[in-house]
Design goal:
Layout lengths: L3 H19 L3 H20 L5 H9 L8 E10 L2 E7 L5 E2 L2 E3 L6 H13 L1 E13 L13 E13 L7 E7 L14 H12 L6 E2 L1
Helix pairs in contact: 1-2, 2-3
């Protein structure tokens, strides 16, 4: 679970963002701007970033504050799972990324799988909806994130690296490579294997 200071800073930022979205009184606006500054200072004190950088990041968020959505695709072949090696850290992950505006979650994960692995797929099942803050991902993230995991079937394409990934391969459950735990955890991949073996398992959620 994310540390208390991070959860508090995120909540303060959300209150400030919501307040700035709806406030019309000049004094209220000033108070919410100060609240955003305090959230930035708390987050800076617990991380390597400066308060100014974080405040600029927060200032770019407008409208009512809601969690961001990350989608991940679990694709199986011969009882092995598809993983991609991330160029950013040379570690392995389920293909996926941020959900895009005006795209359904299933369409987003299918697109991400194709872009990162070369395989064309069809989303078959929403296996899990997990709150990133409730799982031991590292490093902590300044935004609140929901992670959607889909079971997907290959319908075409071929393995190929991309501008984001340097390698593509399939792995057995007991021979997983070093994972990019900011993106996916071993336990989460284990649960995808469980859903692959038992398609009638219900969707898991926090």
């Amino acid at each position: 679970m994310d540390p208390l200071w991070l959860r508090q800073a995120r909540e303060l930022q959300a209150i400030a963002q919501n307040g700035l979205t709806f406030a019309t009184d000049a004094f209220d606006i000033e108070r919410y701007e100060r609240l955003r500054q305090l959230a930035s200072e708390i987050m800076a004190a617990g991380s390597d970033a400066s308060a100014e950088v974080i405040q600029t990041l927060f200032a770019g968020e407008i409208g009512y504050a809601t969690p961001k959505v990350d989608v991940r695709g679990a694709v199986f072949r011969d009882n092995k799972i598809l993983l991609v090696q991330e160029r950013s850290d040379n570690l392995w992950s389920l293909p996926g990324g941020w959900a895009d505006v005006d795209q359904a979650p299933a369409d987003c994960v299918v697109r991400e799988i194709t872009e990162e692995s070369g395989f064309e797929t069809r989303a078959q099942k929403l296996a899990a909806v997990w709150d990133r803050a409730k799982h031991p991902h590292e490093p902590p993230y300044p935004y609140h994130i929901y992670k959607l995991f889909f079971i997907c079937n290959i319908i075409g394409g071929a393995a190929g690296a991309s501008i984001e990934t340097s390698a593509v391969d399939f792995f057995a459950e007991d021979t997983l490579p070093a994972l990019s735990i900011g993106r996916v955890l071993p336990k989460q991949i284990n649960r995808m294997f469980a859903h692959h073996r038992q398609p009638d398992l219900p969707t898991e959620f926090d």
